[in-house]
């Protein structure tokens, strides 16, 4: 509507503008609108990733007095990619991922295509930490399994759990809106 009014006003108040002039003005206006609507990315674009960090849903979780902003990995495809191809500079000490499943089962994670060491917490359906590990980059052989049925798995920068004193038995407060979006995938 604005473009039509602008074009109409210009045509009646001055020399006639060509179709090319109007098209250039419209394109200029649209590019300004596009620039205003798109916030500057907080995280770098990683060519190898399907799910870019800035496009993932984020949830806030707490454990003790510590708060974390976690990317929600709520489908099989997202869980499969996880932290692959990221560098330590791609996330902060209070950022990580939460992998959410439909139910509690023994879970096993590995470090395929994962370029950074990570801390991992396996949690039950109430957010209670069952066990933790510090996983080594690219390690595909160590058994990093949960000790019991895990519904949530949280990955953070390596060393954060020790630094903050987070250990088995403590409880993450996880919003109930954080659910698996896969039907039947446990």
Q: What labels would you give this structure?
A:
alpha+beta; 23% helix; two-stranded antiparallel sheet; 186 residues
Nearest-integer average pLDDT: 85
- SSE series: HHEEHEEEEEEHE
Q: What is the approximate shape? A: globular
Counting DSSP H or I runs of 4 or more residues, the number of helices is 4
**Rg (CA only):** 24 Å
Strand order of the biggest β-sheet: 6-5-8-3-2-1-9
Question: In short, what is this structure?
Answer:
The protein is of the alpha+beta class. 23% of the residues lie in helices and 28% in strands. Strands 6-5-8-3-2-1-9 form a 7-stranded mixed beta sheet. Strands 4-7 form a two-stranded antiparallel ribbon.
Structural write-up:
This protein is of the alpha+beta class and 186 residues long. 23% of the residues lie in helices and 28% in strands. The protein is built from four helices and nine strands. The chain has a seven-stranded mixed beta sheet with strand order 6-5-8-3-2-1-9. Strand 2, helix 3 and strand 3 form a beta-alpha-beta unit.
């Amino acid at each position: 509507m604005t473009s039509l009014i602008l074009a109409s006003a210009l045509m009646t108040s001055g020399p006639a503008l060509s179709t090319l002039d109007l098209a250039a003005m419209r394109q200029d206006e649209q590019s300004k609108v596009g620039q205003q609507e798109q916030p500057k990315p907080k995280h770098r674009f990683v060519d190898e990733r399907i799910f870019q960090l800035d496009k993932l849903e984020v949830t806030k979780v707490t454990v003790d007095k510590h708060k974390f902003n976690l990317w929600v990995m709520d489908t099989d495809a997202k869980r499969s990619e996880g932290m692959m191809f990221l560098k330590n500079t791609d996330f902060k000490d209070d950022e990580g991922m939460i992998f959410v499943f439909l139910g509690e089962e023994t879970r096993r994670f590995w470090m395929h295509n994962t370029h950074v060491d990570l801390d991992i917490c396996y949690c039950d359906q109430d957010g209670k930490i069952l066990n933790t590990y510090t996983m080594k980059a690219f390690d595909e052989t160590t058994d990093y399994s949960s000790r019991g049925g895990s519904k949530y798995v949280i990955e953070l920068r390596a060393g954060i759990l020790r630094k903050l004193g987070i250990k088995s038995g403590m409880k993450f407060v996880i919003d109930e809106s954080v659910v698996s979006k896969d039907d039947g995938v446990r």
